[in-house]
């Protein structure tokens, strides 16, 4: 890797770490860069996943204040995310990439609709519970746990816009502030990337130079993203999620 290519990968890592912490989809920055510099698709995907682990941890640390009071919920979510992430990592090496090419843009589009409609849907759900005299499940119930695990399978497989899917699912089924949901999302992404990375270390080929450059860049980006994302009002954060999600769909359809 030349000096110019190394600088480009490092810069992509900063961008990915920043956007991952704010919303997700940082893979759509780093993955094409690695492909452009000659890495095979699977090697690029594995190297990218390994490199983004420190950035995910950095973003989670940056959002630690918003995690207060969510320990029990987080542990439960993380357990399902860990299983899903491991399954997704196994599928990456077992299935051709075409297996997910059709469904992924559709999945992201559905998630964006949920993000946009989340305030109205949440209000309707609360109103129906009030009429029926029921209360919300503090952890979203089995539906949310299943949804998070399936999203984590996708995250372990590729991961572009998995944060958008997490926020969409939790936003509809949990009665929480969007920033607190974003904090949960950052930890879940770190869990999925981490378990996939451990698996890849033993069974997959990767480029250590690319991993190191992305790791350093994404760590810096994670802190930057936390500072920017935490200052965004819910409407602005929701708008960023939608824009990034739409860009992800376009890039996936055109690749």
UniProtKB/TrEMBL annotation:
GO cellular component: plasma membrane
Subcellular location: Cell membrane
Keyword Transmembrane helix set for record: yes
Keyword terms of this UniProt record: Cell membrane, Membrane, Transmembrane, Transmembrane helix, Transport
Main localization (coarse): membrane
Topology relative to the membrane: Multi-pass membrane protein
Transmembrane segments: 74-96, 102-122, 143-169, 189-216, 236-254
Domain of life: Bacteria
Pfam families in the cross-refs: TauE
Entry keyword annotation includes Membrane: yes
Family (UniProt): Belongs to the 4-toluene sulfonate uptake permease (TSUP) (TC 2.A.102) family.
Stated name of the protein: Probable membrane transporter protein
Naturally occurring in which organism (per UniProt): Streptomyces glebosus
């Amino acid at each position: 890797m030349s000096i110019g290519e190394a600088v480009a990968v490092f810069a992509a890592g900063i961008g990915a770490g920043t956007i991952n912490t704010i919303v997700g989809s940082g893979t759509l920055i780093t993955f094409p860069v690695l492909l452009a510099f000659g890495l095979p698709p699977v090697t690029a995907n594995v190297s990218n996943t390994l490199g983004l682990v420190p950035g995910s941890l950095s973003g989670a640390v940056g959002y630690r204040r918003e995690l207060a009071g969510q320990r029990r919920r987080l542990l439960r979510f993380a357990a399902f995310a860990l299983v899903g992430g491991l399954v997704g990592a196994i599928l990456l090496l077992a299935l051709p990439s075409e297996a997910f090419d059709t469904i992924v843009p559709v999945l992201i589009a559905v998630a964006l609709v949920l993000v946009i409609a989340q305030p109205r849907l949440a209000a309707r759900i609360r109103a129906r519970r009030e009429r029926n005299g029921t209360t919300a499940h503090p952890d979203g119930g089995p539906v949310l746990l299943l949804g998070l695990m399936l999203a984590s399978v996708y995250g372990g497989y590729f991961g572009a816009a998995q944060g958008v899917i997490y926020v969409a699912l939790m936003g509809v089924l949990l009665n929480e502030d969007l920033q607190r949901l974003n904090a949960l999302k950052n930890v879940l992404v770190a869990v999925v990337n981490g378990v996939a990375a451990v698996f890849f270390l033993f069974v997959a080929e990767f480029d250590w130079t690319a991993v190191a450059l992305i790791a350093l860049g994404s760590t810096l980006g994670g802190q930057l993203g936390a500072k920017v994302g935490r200052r965004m009002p819910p409407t602005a954060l929701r708008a960023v999620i939608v824009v990034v999600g739409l860009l992800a769909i376009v890039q996936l359809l055109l690749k």
